[in-house]
Amino acid sequence: MTNHYVATVPVKFTDSEGEVRTRFQRVGAMFRNTRNGDGSEFFSLKLDFPVAVQELVMFPPSSKEPQE
């Protein structure tokens, strides 16, 4: 299981056939962490740049994503 997810924002656009579609623009990564004391999990979100959005969508990294 991966220890991080790709953080994205959904961006709606109209394709060449006039259909409204959604693409996902990468804005950072979310990392799964484990506390040393009790072993509980938590996540940390690291943004590539400051963003002012209402929604972030996380995906597991694809095979073409560089490993950090």
UniProtKB/TrEMBL annotation:
It comes from the Bacteria. This is Uncharacterized protein. It comes from Seohaeicola nanhaiensis. The lineage of its organism: Bacteria, Pseudomonadati, Pseudomonadota, Alphaproteobacteria, Rhodobacterales.
